[in-house]
Design the sequence.
C-alpha cells in the first residue's frame, strides 16, 4: 500500500492505492472492499498509485494519481470520479501537462481550482482539470512530490524533490 485516503465527509469511505496497480475502496468502514482498477479507462495495468485525494466538497469526488515511469511510461495520469468510482475521466495527459504526475490537490474553497505536481513542476487548473497551466512565477521546473493547503492562512505548500519547500501565499 502506497497511500490511504479516508474521507473527511464520510467516516465509512476509505480509498487505498498500491504499488501494483490496485485501487480499492470501502464504503462500509472496511467490512468490504472493491477493486476499481479495471473500471478506469486508460489505467495502465500494474502502475503505481502514489496519491489519492478525496474532495472536501463531496465524498464521491476522488482524484487518483497514477504513475508508471518505473516501466518507461512517462505519461501523466490523473483520474477523477464524481460518483464514488462508478465512472472515471482522465484529467491529465501529455496534451495538458508535461512529465509524470506525483501529486494532485483540490482547493478546499474553490471547487474547480486544482493543483498538479509533475516531474517538471507545478500546474494549475481553474476549471476542474479541463485545462492546465504550468506555474513558473518564482517557481523552478523541479519535481513536485506533494501539495497541501495550509488551513489557517490558506497558503499552498509545495514539497519538491531535492530542492526545498515552497509556500505560495493565498
Sequence:
Amino acid at each position: 500500500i502506497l497511500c490511504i485516503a479516508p474521507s473527511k465527509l464520510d467516516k465509512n469511505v476509505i480509498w487505498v492505492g498500491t504499488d501494483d496497480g490496485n485501487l480499492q475502496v470501502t464504503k462500509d468502514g472496511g467490512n468490504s472492499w472493491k477493486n476499481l482498477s479495471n473500471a478506469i479507462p486508460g489505467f495502465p495495468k500494474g502502475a503505481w498509485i502514489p496519491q489519492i485525494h478525496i474532495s472536501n466538497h463531496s465524498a464521491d469526488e476522488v482524484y487518483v494519481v497514477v504513475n508508471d515511469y518505473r516501466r518507461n511510461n512517462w505519461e501523466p495520469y490523473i483520474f477523477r470520479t464524481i460518483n464514488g468510482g462508478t465512472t472515471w475521466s482522465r484529467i491529465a495527459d501529455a496534451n495538458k501537462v508535461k512529465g509524470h504526475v506525483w501529486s494532485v490537490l483540490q482547493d478546499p474553497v474553490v471547487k474547480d481550482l486544482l493543483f498538479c505536481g509533475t516531474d517538471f513542476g507545478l500546474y494549475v487548473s481553474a476549471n476542474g482539470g479541463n485545462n492546465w497551466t504550468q506555474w513558473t512565477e518564482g517557481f523552478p521546473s523541479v519535481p513536485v512530490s506533494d501539495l497541501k493547503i495550509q488551513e489557517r492562512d490558506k497558503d499552498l505548500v509545495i514539497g519538491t524533490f531535492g530542492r526545498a519547500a515552497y509556500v505560495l501565499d493565498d
Notes: The radius of gyration is 15 Å. The chain has a mean pLDDT of 94. The chain is about 0% helix and 45% strand.
